[in-house]
């Protein structure tokens, strides 16, 4: 009897809940509202389209008009002007609110922003250098997180070299107009990969900038007058997003056949995968709002000087929505109170116990959720190591501890050498496996007080704490090098990893986290410039050198505009008869002070900043004009080409070929010199450009031959015409029998391959005699002439041919 009564109580309770739950739905009159999107229909807005298509808005008594966005559409203005009731914004909503704009945040749909900087390969190592390049950014309200990256490095928006105001940055990036562009992870990477354009990504989260992406918002007066409508709209929108992410193929089909018919289906699928990663539905309830995180975003705007220092986000900024777990169950309790009218006492007690069990479970779920969110925000998803954000937090704590205990700290910046080649040869899966192996090796053997983090790409940073003296660091660094350089087997391939390491010490090299990190980064670059598997300690001299490099990088761009570059030419003489048949073109930089800088003082910096392409184009055009002024068709000019030049998408071999044809110059009169090191690490892009110029009739010379880098296969596969024997073998040719034997072997090999030979650095008559006897074809050096001006070379050429 008791069981029967209990079952009856439960049935009565359920009937009451169902009847009461239906009452609000039946009571809804159809309300028309307008939603303004940020851009054209795409998966970025799939949740709203699916809420409409699946009838979720209709179930809530809403007739929703979805208005696509585009260039020039300001979501905030659309809402404030009453043309739209709801719109999609981003973290810039906090800035607007602090500036006094009456907006209300309804739901954070994207827990992470899709906004990133895309740069050319190798460009993103230094934010300072990047700030001197042409950067294509949209308005600050469209990408506040990107401006925040520069601000973190002490660079304000007004300090950026050139911010291009554009609507379609992708074409500007491909054409070379922009060196870095604001992009969305779900968009530009798809098109760049499709067009085989190489690029790198700078993600704000790696710099401690953790902004929200798409957020649903409305205006204050509308929310105050229509709170129930706002709740229903938000609830249905979140339901639409849950459906879209759980049914991606069906959602993509709907979008492709309907509102997003202009979009490529493959792109929609790509966008869907990225979007799910940004919304993080497996870790965070869709729409979840975290006020403390918004406060940090607000602080960033204050640091940028965009919001009053005393402004804040008060409660009126957040819409009190029942999807918060605690609030959801408060609503359930309220429902239960009314439904109790339908229940007998036994049923009510049963219901009350169930609700309390669910409340307890919800608190546990919330704790688990917080742990999951913290893990996503603080750890690298690939390796499981701490990310930049967590590393900086630990570094700041370590600095405080070291200050109190008078101990030392070391920050070790590690950059893997030639990682791009691992990715190119083994694919991204192989590259990921490689990174995990390196991460495991670095983490093994560290003390509990130490930290190894991955900052993204092939960059790792180690924090060594509680050091009694700085000298202890070097042994640890040597152990890192030993671990990294161990042979590694991946996908059946044996790899021999190497890395460049830079070290800064607290407090001698800085007492702030960002300073220590920047200085270790500079030291790493110094190590990399010395070759592979090197480490370098930061010094004041290195800081001075870094400042000098930044100064030169800035002045290089001005030098192009002010036409401060000059060309000189060093004759190359045929040994058999002493005639000048070639010359090597060499660049000089004449400063406004009259001082002349040699290439060794600025070419490397030009390569790092990307200006090498513009400088290289200028050199090429100068040589073309010079060849046009020389009447002798049998005289050729050699032009040095940098690997960074050929590896850059901005450089066009086809354009050079067309200019040669327009100049009406025999292509064989141009000899392009490439170094052995370039051949060692050549990419498919480099090889294809060399082939284009060769097929056009231009000649190629392999410079610095014999310095230990060359791949003999390159001599055959790329069909060189000349090899230049490095001056270090010529210098002691008449004194050192080993040098003589080496040069003799090089000459014999070149002859066997049908290549002509040029000896560099010839300075004595004895060297000339020996080279003639050994069968060398040409010689270049101060024995014949130093590099001379164009007019002087013409005079020398006339005398040589007359004689």
TrEMBL record:
Keywords: Membrane, Transmembrane, Transmembrane helix
Domain of life according to the entry: Bacteria
Pfam family name, one: NMT1
Protein's recorded name: Diguanylate cyclase (GGDEF) domain-containing protein
InterPro entries tied to this protein: Biofilm_reg_signaling (IPR052155), EAL_dom (IPR001633), EAL_sf (IPR035919), GGDEF_dom (IPR000160), Nucleotide_cyclase (IPR029787), Rev_trsase/Diguanyl_cyclase (IPR043128), SsuA/THI5 (IPR015168)
Domain EAL: 549-801
Keyword Transmembrane helix appears in the UniProt entry: yes
